[in-house]
């Protein structure tokens, strides 16, 4: 590789790595701005801010979607709403470090579920990596001594399962295959916001978006805009840009560092203190997911994933987040 080519590759890699960093920090951001009573309101505000930008940027291709594609995207949007609800309620009730590491189990759950569907037995190396990751999560959630996992830990585990369902649904729904990724992501986010808005009007579900918006102080708005602008819009468009200039595998590898940054942010900025057991568990989760990604790579099929969320997914083949 020439010096010029190496410099060009680095200039492409750096923004993608920044996406992994902001996604890793999004758990702390969500935790700072959200309470158990404002989860739905914050989700409406967070994605309501970015939807007009996505619609405006992709209006022509959005109008070209046929009815089958719209129905498929609508179904995926319902699943996506479940992911965001589980993630956001989960991060309210657990640490930013735990949230970021537990959700990374999606990288283990997805190949396991796919092998179940296709009937292809996963390799011994992958099963060992999966076992290592699960052991890591058990230690991570018991860092202060062996107790029952917290409600937040269980919700994040549910979010990882829901992400797996979302990925598999996207890869197997014929109606969405070949559709424009930006348009599909926009419809999915729009459907998810509609679900949040409806749920927020029900009794006992907490503050409405308008009430929460009025009660947010300047610091809360900064966190909310960070989630909207950087963790969603920036992440979406960087992936769109980078996948055209490098390989999907390279983008996926860089985005796969997200749980590392979640742990770094949780420990250094959020003040998480997982203890020695927790630190060992964090190491095992990271090692297991990295090993699992490598072991499963030859068997994995291409899928179209949505942008962000809290790290929101982008609708691109290499994306690792929903």
Automatic annotation (TrEMBL):
The keyword Cell membrane applies. Residues 298-322 are annotated as: Disordered. This is DMT family transporter. It comes from Streptomyces tibetensis. The chain crosses the membrane at residues 12-30, 36-58, 70-89, 95-113, 125-145, 151-170, 182-201, 221-241, 253-270, 276-292. It comes from the Bacteria. Its main location: membrane. The keyword Transmembrane applies. Residues 14-141, 151-290 form the EamA domain. SUPFAM superfamilies: Multidrug resistance efflux transporter EmrE (SSF103481). Keywords: Cell membrane, Membrane, Transmembrane, Transmembrane helix. InterPro entries: Diverse_Substrate_Transporter, EamA_dom, EmrE-like. Belongs to the EamA transporter family. It is found in: Cell membrane. It is a multi-pass membrane protein.
């Amino acid at each position: 590789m020439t010096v010029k080519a190496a410099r060009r590759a680095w200039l492409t890699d750096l923004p993608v790595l920044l996406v992994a960093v902001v996604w890793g920090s999004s758990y702390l951001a969500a935790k700072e701005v959200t309470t158990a009573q404002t989860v739905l309101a914050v989700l409406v505000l967070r994605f309501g801010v970015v939807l007009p930008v996505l619609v405006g940027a992709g209006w022509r291709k959005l109008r070209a979607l046929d009815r089958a594609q719209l129905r498929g995207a609508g179904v995926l949007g319902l699943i996506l709403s479940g992911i965001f609800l589980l993630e956001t309620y989960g991060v309210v009730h657990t640490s930013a470090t735990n949230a970021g590491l537990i959700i990374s189990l999606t990288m283990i759950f997805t190949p396991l579920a796919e092998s179940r569907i296709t009937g292809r037995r996963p390799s011994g190396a992958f099963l060992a990596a999966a076992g290592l990751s699960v052991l890591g999560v058990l230690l991570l959630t018991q860092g202060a001594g062996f107790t029952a996992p917290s409600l937040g830990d269980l919700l994040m585990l549910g979010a990882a399962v829901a992400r797996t369902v979302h990925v598999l649904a996207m890869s197997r729904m014929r109606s969405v295959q070949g559709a424009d990724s930006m348009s599909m992501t926009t419809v999915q986010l729009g459907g998810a916001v509609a679900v949040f808005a409806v749920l927020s009007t029900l009794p006992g579900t907490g503050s409405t978006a308008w009430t929460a918006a009025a009660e947010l102080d300047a610091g809360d708005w900064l966190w909310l805009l960070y989630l909207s602008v950087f963790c969603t819009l920036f992440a979406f468009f960087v992936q769109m840009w980078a996948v055209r200039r490098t390989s999907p595998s390279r983008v996926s590898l860089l985005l796969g560092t997200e749980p590392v940054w979640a742990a770094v942010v949780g420990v250094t900025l959020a003040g998480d203190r997982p203890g020695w057991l927790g630190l060992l568990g964090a190491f095992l989760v990271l090692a297991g997911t990295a090993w699992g990604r490598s072991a499963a790579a030859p068997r994995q099929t291409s899928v179209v994933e949505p942008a962000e969320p809290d790290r929101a997914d982008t609708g691109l083949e290499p994306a690792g987040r929903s």
